[in-house]
User: Which sequence fits this backbone?
């Protein structure tokens, strides 16, 4: 079994009208066994920037700690938050540092940049960035997620409709993947507020 | 195979571990205590490579004590768990420790807690956790009978149910178990569950 499939994960981020949504599943497993059904895969870097880490959970935790450290230093030096584009470059650089002994993670970065323009991107485990205008996916359920998002996505969705779309895409994709699921965690971020919601799907 | 499991109750946490020290087909001893008292209000139940288990848990114990000497206050359970994960994560890509840990503790402010830390340094706070082949039975038993806010009697009853299940259904079931508990009065041994005692040595 691949090391990327050891813990199981599903992540998706989608762009809406002056907003974005980032969603993940909640399962933490060790191969076939489920350890927990409340695992947090998405973390807030600052009010307008969220990071989701799929792949090996231990590397996701280590990488998250390193990135929070770097962002806090940046905040102290620059006296402001990092822009999403800058943060994506930072993540890419940190991953490529370990080119010949990588972190087994696929990050998904979603944030609101200048003039509240939503920014999403994903990258592979060695930092190859993939910018997208509509949606990005990661994790063991990524293939199903590509299909679901491609068919359900529309341009310029309002936050409520975006939430519905992301939720349906996530739940239907994880139901086809035995290693991810056990509910969903969705963040819908607009310039004024962050709405965090838990989804109840098939609990298997 | 080594069985370790634990759960969080009303205002206490309980962990149980088997007590057999095995090398290949030989049982060296059947009263090996695998649950270390980390400090006054923390227990560390460890399973895995026996040399690593003893060395690593003693290392954590001494460092936790050092923190208390230097700073005058003890570490919280969360801090101790994160320190343990950090040590495992640092060693992971150099000289990994093959030790799985359940860290149970009681803090005055936050109450009882249980942390699942596997050998590749995945950390997660859980209500119930288990390692080893016995986990297939004990986790299933706990999923069925566990509810939050259990009393000591209910929890020990559940622990006994898990031990019965392991003894009757696991082919290489360990005969003896030790149960330790941690609550506001501290960490202490609660009981042994023995079905085989070591043969007494005849005097010379």
Assistant:
């Amino acid at each position: 079994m691949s090391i990327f499939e050891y813990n199981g994960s599903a992540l998706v981020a989608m762009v809406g009208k002056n907003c974005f949504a980032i969603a993940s599943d909640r399962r933490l497993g060790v191969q076939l066994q489920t350890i927990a059904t409340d695992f947090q895969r998405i973390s807030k870097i600052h009010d307008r920037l969220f990071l989701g880490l799929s792949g090996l959970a231990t590397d996701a935790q280590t990488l998250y700690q390193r990135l929070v450290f770097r962002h806090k230093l940046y905040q102290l030096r620059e006296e402001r938050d990092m822009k999403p584009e800058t943060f994506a470059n930072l993540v890419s650089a940190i991953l490529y540092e370990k080119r010949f002994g990588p972190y087994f993670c696929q990050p998904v970065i979603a944030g609101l940049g200048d003039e509240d323009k939503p920014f999403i991107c994903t990258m592979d485990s060695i930092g190859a960035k993939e910018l997208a205008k509509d949606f990005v996916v990661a994790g063991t359920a990524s293939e199903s997620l590509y299909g679901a998002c491609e068919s359900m996505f529309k341009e310029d969705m309002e936050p409520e409709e975006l939430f519905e779309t992301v939720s349906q895409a996530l739940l239907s994709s994880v139901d086809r993947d035995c290693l991810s699921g056990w509910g969903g965690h969705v963040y819908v971020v607009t310039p004024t507020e962050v709405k965090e919601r838990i989804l109840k799907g098939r609990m298997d | 195979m080594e069985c370790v499991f634990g759960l969080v109750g009303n205002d206490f946490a309980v962990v149980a571990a088997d007590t057999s020290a095995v090398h290949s087909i030989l049982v060296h001893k059947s009263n090996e205590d695998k649950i270390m008292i980390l400090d006054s209000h923390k227990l560390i139940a460890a399973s895995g490579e026996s040399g690593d288990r003893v060395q690593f848990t003693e290392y954590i114990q001494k460092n936790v004590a050092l923190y208390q000497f230097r700073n005058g206050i003890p570490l919280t359970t969360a801090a101790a768990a994160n320190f343990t994960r950090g040590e495992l994560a640092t060693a992971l890509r150099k000289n990994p420790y093959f030790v799985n840990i359940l860290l149970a503790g009681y803090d005055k402010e936050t109450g009882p807690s249980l942390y699942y830390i596997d050998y590749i340094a995945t950390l997660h706070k859980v209500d119930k956790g288990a390692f080893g082949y016995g986990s297939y039975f004990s986790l299933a038993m706990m999923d069925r009978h566990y509810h939050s806010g259990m009393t000591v009697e209910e929890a020990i009853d559940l622990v006994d149910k898990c031990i019965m299940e392991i003894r009757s259904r696991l082919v290489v079931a360990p005969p003896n178990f030790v149960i330790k508990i941690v609550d506001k009065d501290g960490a202490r041994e609660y009981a042994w569950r023995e079905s085989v005692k070591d043969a007494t040595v005849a005097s010379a």
